[in-house]
Design goal:
The chain is α/β, with parallel strands linked by helices. The protein has two domains: about 110 residues, Aspartate Aminotransferase, domain 1 (Alpha-Beta Complex), CATH 3.90.1150.10; about 240 residues, Type I PLP-dependent aspartate aminotransferase-like (Major domain) (Aspartate Aminotransferase, domain 2, 3-Layer(aba) Sandwich). It is built from 13 helices and 14 strands. It has a seven-stranded mixed beta sheet with strand order 2-10-9-8-5-3-4, sandwiched between helices. Strands 1-13-14-12-11 form a five-stranded mixed beta sheet, with helices on one face. Strands 6-7 form a two-stranded antiparallel sheet. α2 crosses α10, α3 crosses α4 and α10 crosses α11. It is globular and about 60 Å long. The structure holds pyridoxal-5'-phosphate.
Amino acid sequence: MSHMFVPGPVDVAPEVLAAQTKPMLPHRSKDFEAIFQRTEAKAKDLFYTNTRVFQASSSGSGMQEAGIRNFVQESVLTCVNGSFSQRWNDVAIGNGKKADKIEVEMGEAITPEMLRDALKQKHYEAVTIVHNETSTGVENPIKEMCDVVHEVSPDTLILVDAVSSLGGVKIEMDALGIDFLLTSSQKCLALPPGLALAAASDRAMKKAESVTNRGWYFDLVLMEKHRLKDSTPMTPVMPLIFALDFQLDRIFAEGLDNRFARHAAMAKKVQDWSIARGMEPLAKEAYRSKTVVTVKNSLNWDISALNKFLQTRGMRIANGYGKIKDITFRIATMGETQLSDVDALLAGMEEFIKQS
Ligand SMILES: *Cc1c(COP(=O)(O)O)cnc(C)c1O
């Protein structure tokens, strides 16, 4: 099996791939509804929520758009510290909303103090936060940020993209008071791409009812009507629901806490290696991601030559992303990747350096 140390799409276990190949069912049938109901029930445990989890046929970006269209009538505050948080700002503007920004350099985290200042200056219907910036390997201090919103502007909805962390890092939606929490199938959940999961709080759903021009495909009020009947307004991405059903059992068999500890240990190993090697992670120590390490390429390694070499051993890493594409490289430590795989990767990289 190949090992892709890229931050999505990640390797999918053969038995999970196989779970997709079950015969299709009519989606408005008791048989399918039973499966759809149990995948939602399991997803609620994954999100640490008692509310609801939408299972949408789109990639994660679709749910960024849903968050904006359903929960923001006019103005939103977007926290931007990398490419995916910038995307959420683009999505808001593309949907005709007024989107203010708190912006820091790539590699930095958004601090609770910045959020406090912005919320004191102006009232916002919602704030968008990317929990784990996959472009920079920075994890924002989500608990402290949520605490500030609750304190300074309690009616502002908190929308969180956890595409590259949910299922790999503990994010307790209800305990944190998050209103909308979204992820994609192809990252920490180690499924093929094409399915998004998103949980929404009761107060967010109430707000959505008053927002106009929610669209149709991502209208969560319409989706909620169907969800209550274990269904969707449109045809769901059935093979991925079958795979989700199977994969969530595997995830709970490993145990969520074990899974989180495995991700943290793998990331730490890569971070320590980069420092020992004379480079360093882009992120400051307090904000380092547990699912992807973005390393400053200060030794000017030829990443495409490195990847060619690694591919002869069935492995590959990722380039930098966005504005820092050429000055960083990224090693993902998410999904089904094990510590022994990381050892094999680091050994392979050492070998490449020795012979080049
Ligand atoms: C990958 C990623 C996205 C985009 O997800 P898609 O499923 O490709 O739409 C958004 N946000 C973050 C943090 C990501 O890592």
